[in-house]
Amino acid sequence: MPSAPPRPRHFASDNNAGIIPEVWQALAEANAGGHAPGYGSDEWTAAAQAEMRRVFEREEAFAFFVFNGTAANSLALASLCDSLHGAVCHRHSHIITDECNAPGFFRPGLSLLPADTPLGKLTPAAVREVVAGLRPVHAPEARALSLTQCTELGTIYSLDELAALTATARELRLRVHMDGARFANAVAALGAAPADLTWRAGIDVLSFGGTKGGMPLGEAVVFFREELADNFIRRMKQAGQLASKMRFLSAPWLGFLRDDAWLRHASHANAMAARLEAAIQGLPRVQIAHPRESNAVFAHLSRPAVEALWAGGWRFYDDVGPGGAARLMCAWDTQPDDVDGFAADLARALGK
Ligand SMILES: *Cc1c(COP(=O)(O)O)cnc(C)c1O
C-alpha cells in the first residue's frame, strides 16, 4: 500500500466520504429535541417512516432502520426464506462476496445460489437455469431472488430488465429482494420514480442504502408488503440491530430524503464518474471494463500505472468483481479537481 500520505479525497469507496450537510442538520435537530423514547418509539422514527411512504408512494411500505447493509440484506432474506430455501443471486453479489455468510447465519440453512452473467446483471434465463438445476427434494428450494441496484460492477438494471426478472420470479414463485446499497445512484441515473424501480416493478423488499449516499451510517429495510415484515423488529433485536437511541439512526433519513437531497448528491457523484470516464478513456492502454452507468468507473490500467498512482497517494481497489480492473468510485463530495488531478497523474504514469 502507498507510503505517501493519504489524499483528503480519493476513489476507494463512497463510504470513505463524510456526511452530507442535510443529514448533519437533521441529526442536530434530533439532538436539540431533548429526551425521546428508545427503540424506535420516538417521533423522528415515525417521521422517517412517513417520509419513506411518501417517497415510495405507498401506504403499505414499512421501513426499519438498521446499522449497515450486511444486516439489512441478511435480515431481509431471513424474512423471505426459511432453512429449506435458497436465494438466487449474482456470483459477484455483495451477499456472496462480502458478507461472511451472514445470510446463512441469520437464517441458518439458507443457501445462496449464484449465477454468473455479464456486467453483474442477472437475466431471466440465468435465473431459470439456476432454479432448473435444483433437484427436487434433494436440493434447497429456491424461494428468493436477490438483485443489486446499482450492481456491484456499477451497472444498472433498466425498468424493462427489472420487469422481466420479476415476471420470471413470480412464475418461479420467488420473492424478490433488492440490495440497494447504491439505490440513490440508480434512481438519479434513470430519473425514474422510486416506486417504479421497486414495488411497481415487483420488488418485495429493498435494502435502501444510506451510508454511501452521505449518511454517517444506516440502511433501511423497506417492505412493500406488510405481511413479509412480520416480527422483523424481533429479528433486529436478536441480530443486535435494534438501536436503543433509534432516533439518531432514523433522523438522518429525514435530512437525506427531504427536498430530494439524496438524489441531488447521487446525481453529482454520477456526474463526477462520467467526467472521470471521459478524462481517462482516451489514454493509452486504458480500457473501460464495464459500461459506466452510475458513480463507479471500472478501468483496466497497466500494473505500473496502478503502482504509481498508489504511491502518489491515490486510493482505489483493484479486486472488486472479475478481471482485476481498477474500481474508481466517486462520492457525493468528489470534486472536478479530484477527477482532473487523478486523470493527469494517470496520464503521467502512462508516460504521456
Ligand atoms: C456497501 C454495500 C453493502 C453494505 O455493506 P455494509 O458494509 O454491510 O454496510 C451492501 N451491498 C452492496 C452492493 C454494497 O456495495
CATH superfamily of the largest domain: Type I PLP-dependent aspartate aminotransferase-like (Major domain)
Number of helices: 13
What helical percentage do the residues reach?
Answer: 25-40%
Shape: globular
Summarize the structure.
The protein is 39% helix and 14% strand.
Task: Characterize the structure shown.
The chain has 352 residues and is α/β, with parallel strands linked by helices. The chain has two domains: 21-260, Aspartate Aminotransferase, domain 2; 261-349, Aspartate Aminotransferase, domain 1 (Alpha-Beta Complex). Helix content is 39%, strand content 14%. The strands form two sheets. A seven-stranded mixed β-sheet has the order 1-7-6-5-4-2-3, with helices on both faces. β4 (141-148), α7 (159-171) and β5 (175-180) form a beta-alpha-beta unit. The two termini are 24 Å apart. The model has no long low-confidence stretch (mean pLDDT 96). Bound molecules: pyridoxal-5'-phosphate (PLP). The site of pyridoxal-5'-phosphate has 10 residues, from α3.
Give the SSE map:
Blueprint: H1 21-31, H2 43-55, E1 62-66, H3 69-80, E2 85-90, H4 94-97, H5 102-106, E3 111-115, H6 124-132, E4 141-148, H7 159-171, E5 175-180, H8 183-190, E6 205-209, E7 219-223, H9 232-238, H10 247-257, H11 261-280, E8 287-288, E9 296-300, H12 303-311, E10 326-329, H13 336-349
Parallel strand pairs: 2-3, 2-4, 4-5, 5-6
Antiparallel strand pairs: 1-7, 6-7, 8-9, 9-10
The structure holds pyridoxal-5'-phosphate.
Pyridoxal-5'-phosphate binds next to helix 3.
